[in-house]
């Protein structure tokens, strides 16, 4: 059985998908971009601020599923420019304890939704 996870504290989907799906004890989030959940505005001031908003959106979804970043076992990061990797990684890393950091891949892509610079999804287990 699957349970749809939704929260007003993360951006509403911009297509035919849900913020996250919980199957048993496993949560699968949709990719999050830097949309402010209250205003709907894109937060693209700089890559650090953009990544911070993405991680806050993920955090809100995790909370809606009664989880936090310590439950994350896998992350996928898609970026438009590999030159931003270190800045993205610094913000991303601040949300995890080094001992419990998840497995991860980071991939440079040609283009992301709404022409953002970073999109991140996670898988978490209770």
From TrEMBL:
GO terms for molecular function: deaminase activity. Pfam families: Ribonuc_L-PSP (PF01042). GO terms for cellular component: cytosol. InterPro entries: RidA (IPR006056), RutC-like_sf (IPR035959), YjgF/YER057c/UK114 (IPR006175). Belongs to the RutC family. PANTHER family: 2-IMINOBUTANOATE/2-IMINOPROPANOATE DEAMINASE RIDA (PTHR11803), PROTEIN HMF1-RELATED (PTHR11803:SF58). This is RidA family protein. The lineage of its organism: Bacteria, Pseudomonadati, Bacteroidota, Flavobacteriia, Flavobacteriales.
